[in-house]
Amino acid sequence: MTAYLPLEDQIRVLFDVVRHPEGRPYTLQEVSEQIDVSLATISQMRSGRIKNPQLHTLRELCRFFDVPLHYFETRTVEACYAVSQANRPPIPPIAHQIAVRAARLSPAAQQDVLVLIRWVQAAEAQQHRDPGRSPLPHLEAFDEQG
């Protein structure tokens, strides 16, 4: 019988898949502050020093990362990704198209695109708070260029 995937690999996938609202990975400190598990315990699990945590610890991680407890029964990294994505909404086609196009850009250009996305998110949030504010301009001329 194939052994379970090491705990540190399972934890790494969770930090890779579930992102902070800013789009970056959560820090160990941020996770620890939101659950009933110490920073030291999470750090030791992630580094492989803790290989057999308490059930309470696993449940708290499952709650934070929104995965079922059977996530920790996975045997491959691919299974980790599949289980962790099961409760997440599918990526809309337009977001997939953005990702595919951005993947072809240089790392510096990808960073620029991320800055633009954050700017649009901030502008939309501000417009939501102040509906009288003029909306973002639509860029139909660029849309025609494909």
Distinctive features:
146 residues, mainly alpha, 434 Repressor (Amino-terminal Domain), 2 domains, elongated
Question: Secondary structure elements and their pairing?
Answer:
Blueprint (H helix, E strand, L loop, with lengths): L6 H11 L10 H7 L4 H9 L7 H11 L11 H9 L7 H11 L3 H23 L10 H4 L3
Helix pairs in contact: 1-5
Give a description of the structure:
It is elongated, with a radius of gyration of 19 Å. It has two domains: 7-85, lambda repressor-like DNA-binding domains (434 Repressor (Amino-terminal Domain), Orthogonal Bundle), CATH 1.10.260.40; 93-143, no CATH class. The longest helix has 23 residues, at 107-129. The mean pLDDT is 86. α1 (7-17) packs across α5. It is an all-alpha fold and 146 residues long. Helix content is 58%, strand content 0%.
DSSP strand tally: 0
Alpha-beta classification: mainly alpha
CATH topology of the largest domain: 434 Repressor (Amino-terminal Domain)
Low-confidence stretches: none
The total of helices stands at 8
Strand-and-helix sequence, N→C? HHHHHHHH
Q: Distance between termini?
A: 51 Å
Offer a concise description of the structure:
By secondary structure, the chain is an all-alpha fold. Helices cover 58% and strands 0% of the residues. The protein starts with 6 loop residues before the first helix and ends with a helix.
